[in-house]
Amino acid sequence: MKTRHKAHAVLLDADRFLLLRRGWPGGTPYCTAVGGTVEPGDADLPAALRREVMEEAGAGIDRPEPILTLTEPGPAVTVVHHFYTARIRSLDPARRHGPEFEDPDTGTFTPVWIEATAEAVTAANLQPPELAAYVLAHLVGPP
Fold first, then answer.
1. In the predicted structure, residue 106 carries a pLDDT above the cut 70
2. Which listed residue, of 15, 31, 55, 64, carries a Cα 20 to 30 Å from 89's Cα?
3. pTM, whole model, 2 decimals?
């Protein structure tokens, strides 16, 4: 069985999160952590994460901190999702690039700021549910 690794980050900036709103025609939009597939040229998971964060959000980050790992078994490929938090040190949306923006079949990837409150995280429909539970338990401010 083949294994594919993905690196994702909940990006932190003061009392907000920078996430990606995903959408497809006819689908229900949701938010998720910024990130994607580890590629052969990536030195390690943090390097893959830094590359993905620049591609999808145009952001540079400080040292990522691991928070959660989820394994998604499949018939041909098992996908291991490595989730981190990271503080934003620079942000330039004009630097966003990558194949996902060129293929309309992948849907939309829109960076959005979400307040670090339980109400805002719940309203954003943060996915996957395990990530939402972690963020609600460990990263949001008091109600």
1. no
2. 31
3. 0.91
